[in-house]
Amino acid sequence: MRTPVRKSALTKLTVLAAVVLSVAVILLSANRFDKVSASASGPSASHTNAPGEDNCTACHSDFGVNSGSGSVSISALPVNYEPNQQIPITVTTAQVGQTIYGFQFTAIDSQGRKVGTYTLPGQAPARMQLIDGLIGGNQRQYIEHTVDGIIPQQFNFNSWTFTWTAPAQRVGKIRFYAAGNASNSDGQTSGDYIYTTSKSLLAGSANTNFDTDGKSDFSVFRPSTGVWYALNSTNGGFQAVQFGSNGDKIAPGDYDADGKTDFAVFRPSTGVWYVQKSTGGYLITQFGTQGDVPVPGDYDGDGKTDIAVWRPSTGVWYIARSSDNGYDIRQFGISTDKVAQGDFDADGKTDIAVFRQSSGDWYVWKSTDNGYIFFHFGANGDRPVQADFDGDGKYDFAVFRPSNGVWYLQRSTAGFGSLQFGANGDLPVPTDFDGDGLADMAVYRNGTWYAFRSSDNGVSIVSFGLAGDLPVPGGLLAE
Q: Three-state secondary structure along 281-328?
């Protein structure tokens, strides 16, 4: 009697085990399908490989990131951005032999926060979508593919184009991150290749950038011959261009908005400006007179350097706007002031400003609201060295004291700072030599450059130039 009972119980247990196993397989398969389906419909947030984030190898783990023969790329971007500028961006994921492709993209500021906005093209069905995420307490936004956006429009790659709009005020350096998935479309997470890349935009911090790599170049103007020499930071090569003559005042700037600094001089004897544009051609115009001080800058926010002079005898600024060929004339300052123009309010426009050495006072006429800033910072004999030292997109009040070689900074975000870097007789030349979006404290000493890098607190010592040469970054500061 007992034997049949044991057989019956064994049979029931076997059936029950089979049912449990089947349910488990179904559940596991469903879970895997959900992951694959979710990836096809767009990955979850925070997989671009940006600081604090993972990348898509978290699920697609057969191969290491960037280990295949393909790539993900972000289309060519301008070197600098302007507030509210609309920039078309194309992200492309490519690999020969794969069949479907996806991506995720984000833009963040130096603090890791969401920056700018996205505009998606009006497509039906939609190939892209926006999602939100949170990293280290900072909100981030991502643009990525939809399930209708994974099918390539051509073999071996897929591209997505959208518009990114810069914030209304400069925020310093902006970083873009993208991850791409080149998939074999087998419905699983295996056999897929993941790629990552990044690019950045600057807020005009590299103001002597002759090779568009986002870094200022060590460069000099030799008055005796009128030759410019620039040491390219991209490859260590150099340029030598004869443009100007003895007695000219250098006035470097990006007069054609291509991201490269142009060779330019102001000839006091005639009041004529000569500009050799990097895009080709020349600009020659009479604007100013004997005794005027050249004060080039982007006063109208169109991305181009404007021709401008300050007349010490009257304290009047004369500005030729490149945006509409109009003029601005404003009385601001007295004859003993030092010019100190810069973008102090992060609106993408150069502000009229002076430093009064006798009292250590700064006066700034803001372009945002036509109001002005008065700030006491410095002492008699100090040289104004205004620049963006903390990478927030605003110029900071700063002075170099020749008597002791100390830099004193009142940074708009990071607060007060000082550093002994230089000696009496040195020419201060603050600019972004390391491409991190922050101006570096630097001096030029009879043919040798000393730069304190903000990126790693290291020091660069570069021999480039001769005694008597004029350092090009100094052409944007008061003499």
A: CEEEEECCCCCCEECCECCCCCCCCEEEEEECCCCEEEEECCCCCCEE
Residues 9-28 pLDDT 10s: 333 323 323 333 333 333 33
pLDDT of residue 187: 85
**Lowest mean per-residue pLDDT among 25-29, 79-83, 322-326, 474-478:** 25-29
Weakest-pLDDT range from 82-86, 109-113, 151-155, 353-357: 151-155
Residue of 279, 272, 232 whose CA lies nearest to 251: 272
Q: What is the pLDDT of residue 21?
A: 31
User: Is beta strand 427-428 parallel, antiparallel or unpaired with respect to 441-445?
Assistant: antiparallel
Nearest Cα residue to 198 out of 181, 219, 177, 182: 177
Looking up tokens 């085990």, which residue turns up? 17
In this structure, are residues 403 and 379 in contact, taking their beta carbons and an 8 Å threshold? no
Q: State both tokens at 104.
A: 């995720």
Q: What is the percent of the chain where pLDDT is above 70?
A: 92
8 Å CB contact between 251 and 475:
yes
Q: Which residues pair with 463 in a beta bridge?
A: 448
CA torsion sign for 433, 437, 439, 441 is negative
At a CB cut-off of 8 Å and minimum separation 6, what does 324 contact? 300
CA dihedral of residues 478, 476, 170, 92 (deg, nearest 10): -170
Quick count: other Cβ atoms within 10 Å of Cβ 67?
A: 12
- Name the phi and psi angles at 472, rounded to 5: -65, -40
Positions of E strands within 47-173: 71-74, 86-94, 100-108, 117-119, 128-135, 138-145, 157-165
| pTM for the predicted model, two decimal places | 0.87
Quick one: average pLDDT of 68-76? 97
Which run of H or E residues covers position 364? strand 361-365
Q: Phi, psi (5° rounding) for residue 365?
A: -95, 110
Residue 23: per-residue pLDDT: 31
3-state helix, strand, coil in the chain (%, to 5): 10, 40, 50
Q: Where are the beta strands (DSSP E) in 168-287?
A: 174-183, 193-201, 218-222, 227-231, 238-242, 249-250, 263-267, 272-276, 282-286
